[in-house]
Amino acid sequence: MTKYIVNIIISGLLTACTGIRVLPPPPPLDKVSTVPEPTVAVEPEEIEYGAFTEDQLYQAIISELGAQRGQLEDAGENYFDLAIQTRDLSIIRRAVQFASVLSDTNALMQLGLLWSEIEPDNAQPHLLLSFQFLENGNFDQALSHMARVIDLGGEMDFSALAARTDQLSPHSRSILIENLRQLTREFSDQESIRLALVQLLAQNREFENALLELNLLTELSDLSPTIVQLQAQVLQSMNDNNEALNVLRKGVREFENDKPLRHAYARLLIQTEEYEEAKEQFQFIMEQDTQDWETLYSVALLDLEMQNFDNAAQAFVRLIGVDHRSDDSQYYLGYIYEKQEDYERAIENYRLVRIGTNNFLAAQQQATRFSIQLGKIDEAHQWLMTLSGGQPRLEIFFNTIESNLLIQNGYAGEAKELLDIALNKYPNESELLFARVLYHDSQKDMAGSEADLRQIIRMKPEESQALNHLGYMLADQTTRYKEALGLIERAISISPDDPAIIDSLAWAQYKLGRYEEALVNLRRAFAAFPDHEVASHLGEVLWMLDRKEEAIQVWEEALEATPDSELIKEAMERLQRP
User: How confident is the model over 177-202, as pLDDT tens digits?
Assistant: First the structure.
């Protein structure tokens, strides 16, 4: 391209070197006049480039044209280089736009620093820098630029700071707190600074100081819904739910139409199990906005909790009709019909929960459960296989669910046949082998369980659950205690904090007569997982250590939580037998 042609393009694209625009595309050939224009000799004029070189202007033009074609990264890099070279404000602002679209935090930081250097009295670059420093976790620098925004007459919401400091150490947060205190003295009319100070104090568990700052804020400025909510949050953090409720109750009377405040009040009422009053708050919101579907969903859940099934069902049907939380609503409709023992309709609604949504797997499990209970075994299987759509992982998962439900409902033979067919299709799949272990366990076929467990361990030597299952089975049902202990010790080296494995380890130690070691591990397992099986083991070890009163206390307390525990009843009867 000759210099003359470049001059013509540049003169059309730039106006006083303050902004860049792209010329409209040329007209199609069929629209171009074929009549020759009279020619006039024009002497090319010298163009003023200002701070730009011809090459830099050409680079800007190419960048804009490239951006129009979707080449944003190249355009962003070119504009960044131009901004550094030219230090022109228009170019810097354009480079910032590209860096923002591309989420190029490094470029944004450098451009912000350059912009603030060239135009120190503009609040915009400091606003940009404050957010970049916040994202990078450099809170001191962020706070400095946030203060500069206010100093230059801009607006700054300091809650952005508090939203990112919850993971700071108390010491680091204390330094920020002192900086905020200083800012409250410099900018006493800035409510958001003091609100951020309250939030950081609460994060530092300095609740009394947080409340003092809130009281001071209410003296300096009018009460607002934000202040009410923050005061209630601090009180909740102090475990004073009653006072938090009082604050919110007064707040919703003061700011009757503030939806977030009323939502906060309703949520706290739910936490304190005051469901009727919570429902009243949601209904008030619904009266103001009859198409507030999320609030209707909250009302439906409350009715569900209060077992107002008809009201809940009507709300869920309405939500499905407007396609708001429709999959959740289908799931809960299935649950309602389940509770009403209308299993056909429960199955229908559970099956309408779409794949990829939160309750999809739970819904399919329940639909399969009730289909099997109704004797519709083939239909249940066919539905799951159709649903899996030929996806191996989903098909394997469905087979494990189906086999377990078949066993639970007395169809052990059908479960075995299902798993054998699945393992023929997907040989040595550990999930299917584990499902078949559960079948063997249900039939008290220890040899079958051991064979499948050892196959899993051969394929996956680090499979702690298989090691634990086999080790516990050997400790509980055979006299191969040393072998059992070895397997469980391998399992616990892989998953040292798993309470089930800790319980198995203790049980193997108990069978080997190592009662004190067993007691230590059982107490650890029971503290993490106070299950009735662990309780039965703990009581038995205590009994063998001649701490019988303590053993009985453990058993009795466990029976209060699980009255039907056959394990505890069997242990008590066996050990207390004369």
Answer: 898 888 888 888 888 888 989 999 99
Half-sphere exposure of 40 (CA within 13 A, CB side): 2
Q: How far apart (Å, rounded) are the C-alpha atoms in residues 126 and 106?
A: 15
Say how far apart CA 302 and CA 279 lie, in whole Å: 7
Say what the alpha-carbon torsion angle 205, 209, 211, 217 is, to the nearest 10 degrees: -130
What is the rounded distance in angstroms from the CA atom of residue 486 to the CA atom of residue 506? 12
Residues in the chain: 578
For 473, what's the count of Cα atoms within 13 Å in the CB-facing half-sphere? Answer: 22
- CA atoms of 185 and 103, how far apart (whole Å): 35
Separation between Cα atoms, residue 555 and residue 563, nearest integer Å: 10
How many other CB atoms sit within 10 Å of the CB of residue 368?
26
Look-up: residue for tokens 């490094």? 106
pLDDT digits (tens, 9 = 90+) for 40-81: 343 444 434 445 676 777 777 777 777 777 788 888 888 888
Whole-structure pTM value: 0.71
Quote the Cα angle for 70-75-81, to 5°.
Answer: 170
- Give every CB contact of residue 244 below 8 A, 6+ residues apart in sequence: 231, 232, 233, 235, 236, 268
Query: Are the CB atoms for 232 and 224 separated by under 8 Å?
Result: no
Helix (H) or strand (E) holding 268: helix 259-271
